[in-house]
Amino acid sequence: MAKLILSMDGLVLKEIPLSKERTTIGRKPHNDIQIDNLAVSGEHAVIVTILADSFLEDLGSTNGTFVNGKTVKKHFLQNNDVIELGKYKLKYMAEAVPGASKAADFEKTMVLRPGAARKPPEAPAAAPAAAAPAHVATMPAAAPAPVSAAAPAAPAAAAKSHGDTQVGVTAASVAAAAAPVRHAMLKLMSGAGAGKELELVKPLTTLGKPGVQVAVITRRPQGFFITHVEGANKPSVNGKPIEVQAHALNDHDVIELAGVKVEFFFKT
Questions:
Q1: How many angstroms separate the CA atoms of 94 and 17, rounded?
Q2: 107 with 170: CB under 8 angstroms?
Q3: Counting beta carbons within 10 angstroms of the beta carbon of residue 50, is it exposed (0 to 12), middle (13 to 18) or buried (19 or more)?
Q4: What is the model's pLDDT at position 213?
Q5: pTM beyond 0.85
Q6: Can you say whether the dihedral through the CA atoms of 178, 182, 187, 189 is positive or negative?
């Protein structure tokens, strides 16, 4: 299990195991990791842990979040990364998992904007039928909520580093990717692009509107689950807000976040 080592001026203060899917960091008492210092915002950052992977996200803090001396908005955490919050440091330590992905940072993902649908990329010549849908329709102008995904990559290959992105997607363990799970889809139910579909080909897919409401859908051996990542309000499934824990998705569930409805269903 991954853990954080909290220190200040070289003095170790505490060790925190990342046993939850969502670990919040901030000055307010309700945070999982409370740092009572004025340099730290009330709700400063969050670490979301999915299977063997953890990623850090700044929650619009006043003074910013730094990793290894560089400011970040979203960052895929790697062993020995040092998160800096004012004078405090959180060292990320993770046990090596055989066959796990070694993404250096989030892969770039598409962010669709109102009225500007993107063209799908050309399929590889060797296997044109295997290419995943490259985009979904743009969201309504009144409440844009982009849906992002990335094409599948070879599990053994390391993902390219593209710096900070608006929405992140990272591969989970190879074991999870190889597990026999039914193929699932997302279908837009509102806006000009209603009816557009997106196949969930990655172990982790992020959807929503950065800065407003973001959630991740993960593919696991047990099925597909949605987890809240960012935003004051949690996404709803079939009209009911999900809990802090991951919520299992069933065929034809209707997900609503950032003002947009998306249907989850299994391919037949």
A1: 10
A2: yes
A3: buried
A4: 81
A5: no
A6: negative
Tokens, residue 142: 């009144």
Q: 3-class DSSP state for residue 244?
A: coil
Question: How many Cβ atoms from other residues are within 10 Å of residue 70's Cβ?
Answer: 11
Backbone angles phi, psi at 176, to 5 degrees: -70, -40
Strands (DSSP E) found in 52-170: 53-58, 65-67, 70-72, 74-76, 82-85, 88-93
Contacts of 24 (CB under 8 A, 6+ apart): 30, 31, 32, 33, 43, 45, 46
Which amino acid, 43? E
Q: Are 226 and 204 in contact (CB under 8 A)?
A: no
Residue stretches of the chain with pLDDT short of 50:
97-179
DSSP characters over 174-200: HHHHHS----EEEEE-SSTTTT-EEE-
Phi first, then psi: give them for residue 129, nearest 5 degrees. -80, -15
Number of residues in the chain: 268
How many CB atoms are located within 10 Å of the residue 155 CB?
Answer: 15
